[in-house]
Amino acid sequence: MALFGFGKKKENEEGKSPEPAGEKQGFFSRIGQGLAKTRRLLNTDIRDLFKAEGRLVDEELLDEIFAILIQTDMGAGPANQIKDRIARDFRGRVVHTEDILKNIREELASLMQQDQQPIKMAAEGPTVVLVVGVNGAGKTTSIAKLTRWFIDQGNSVILGAGDTFRAAATEQLTIWAERLGAKIVKGEQGSDPASVAFRAVDEGIKENADVVIIDTAGRLQTQKNLMTELDKMRRVLGKKIEAAPHEVLLVLDATAGQNGISQAKGFSEAAQCTGIVLTKLDGTAKGGVVVPIRKAFELPVKFIGVGEKPEDLTRFDPDAFCDALFAEN
Ligand SMILES: Nc1nc2c(ncn2[C@@H]2O[C@H](COP(=O)(O)OP(=O)(O)OP(=O)(O)O)[C@@H](O)[C@H]2O)c(=O)[nH]1
Ligand SMILES: [Mg+2]
User: CA-CA distance, 21 to 12, in Å (whole number)?
Assistant: First the structure.
């Protein structure tokens, strides 16, 4: 059950490999496309500052670079850090775009570094993943993507439709489950989500499933009763399997920018999250937001979402992420 790197892709229903040009190249083009908006700023806009013969690194250029960096939502501190490094290395010299881009890429990757923590898999029995976050962050879609990811790695998946608040939420997850070939455990609308979580893990044990992923309704940290409900879900899961939930993934919407981060910090602590799934990176030029997220949370960014389709998710790796941002088309 290898859960590292880019995964061992299986063939899809049509018998075609989804990444015919090779896994790594497929990863770059898919993620690169998904990150197009951020890439346009970091790669294209910075290139546009230079002429073929190069440009003198002076205050004007440094300020122009800073102005572009800041638009990615990386924060003023990190943008200054990158600017200072460029100044230190190149001030007073005529340089070419590639020198500067290499510099930015390296500095950015180092700002995003984190422990490479894969999904913590249970030693035996199903690995239980609870997925939490505010309304509309992309929880249910991310569960579809995670399901695809786990299945692609040879794992069987059972889903728990723990958002019993809205009938449409269960319907949405049921459609994904059918499409992806995963079993789903549901409850009546308005029923106790902890009971759905309990039954989902029960089913996972009976079916000898590798992974059980549980959806939850969107909530805010200020909604005390709903936060208590999450606690109850955790407790119930722990009764069934001692170490469960093995992962509590906090889904964050990248388009919410820095505001979203400060809100989510309290949430993450209250729900004892173990990792972040950063969604909607395709919809924003603010891909630099990974930097303040890394600063604010003592949690690794485990996955990123770059679209609405099940394949639009990848493990977050700072170097691969930066390579994709700076890759030439
Ligand atoms: N472009 C883009 N859209 C996404 C991504 N992830 C989710 N979405 C869209 O965001 C919207 C909300 O996604 P859901 O998965 O329903 O969000 P949720 O957190 O489950 O929402 P609630 O259950 O209502 O709290 C949907 O239209 C998704 O298609 C992503 O990575 N990129
Ligand atoms: Mg949902």
Answer: 15
* Tokens describing residue 269: 């602590």
pTM of the full structure: 0.90
Neighbours of ion ligand 2 (CB under 5 A): 139-140, 169
List pLDDT tens digits, range 87-141.
999 999 999 999 999 999 999 999 999 987 788 899 889 999 999 999 999 999 9
User: Ligand 1 test: best mutation among 159, 308, 309, 313, most atoms within 8 Å of CB?
Assistant: 308
Set out the domains of the chain in order of their start, with CATH numbers.
36-111 (1.20.120.140), 127-326 (3.40.50.300)
Q: What is the DSSP string of 277-304?
A: EEE-GGG-S-GGGHHHHHHH-SS-EEEE
- Nearest-CA residue for ligand 1 atom 5 is 280
Tens of pLDDT, residues 281-311: 999 999 999 999 988 888 999 999 999 999 9
* Tokens matching residue 308: 């609405």
